Here is the input.
Amino acid sequence: MIDADGDGNNWDLTHYVPAHTGANSMYSYSYDNAVGALTPDNYMVTPMVELVPGSTLSLWASTQDVNFPAEHFGVAVSADGENFTTIAEWDLTAKVAGEWHEYIAYVGDYEGDMYLAIRHFNCTNQFMIKVDDVTLYVGDVPEPCYAPPNLTGEVVYDDEAASYGVQLSWDMPENQPLYYNLYVNDTEIIEIEGGLTSYFDMREDGTYIYRLTAVYEGCESDYALTPDGNDYLEIIVDTESVGELYAEEIVTVTAVYNVNGQRIGSVAVEDLPKGVYIVQGVTENGKTIAKKIVK
Ligand SMILES: [Ca+2]
Ligand SMILES: [Ca+2]
Here is the structure.
């Protein structure tokens, strides 16, 4: 046991409260009747274990007081048994209070002789978290859950509809996802087919924050990163300021994409087959713009 907050309180065994199985379970307080609110940072550390690909830690946890369920806890790993990295964390409020729930941490990425810990932290003034039936087993190696790399976007003028939109594009992750979730301003989710690597989003004037994830069997990736390393893309559609610019002709074409985001190589715009395209290029004044065209 490691009492990282140093208050003398830590995990302990109890048979005075209902366990998941049998009479005993482990508990840690975030509130003490005699002291008041605690700010626990308590580690319950395993003996050294050998982790292999697929190693999975299962544990059951519950709050003791259904009215104070906001206990925060997680699983941490360490090579030396002293310096821990927290690799999974949860809030008990995400589940029905008072019931026991199973939590799973995939620890197979940390191959070799390691220590595992169940950590009670980042919460205060609740009551008691209980943990029982901790099992380490070798399960399936989870499929990697890659985020789509290289999320970029630009304002595009749609010649035919005489309207503006945002042309988003990204690279295919290592495994093709089932679909993508495009989050717009945290209020809207657009589902995009997994084979695509771009999306045209017609928008009025405004500021749009885009976030993109890839969804696979059983997991949704982290947010896609932009080339600048941000996990979101902010695009301002302002027809007042860009209207004139977009009225200009593209004099030098730099790239042509079809509506699926595939770049069309070495075909002159005049020779493109019938279809809808995004043409990027440079205007007479040297500005780079993109237009949606219909052939
Ligand atoms: Ca403590
Ligand atoms: Ca038990």
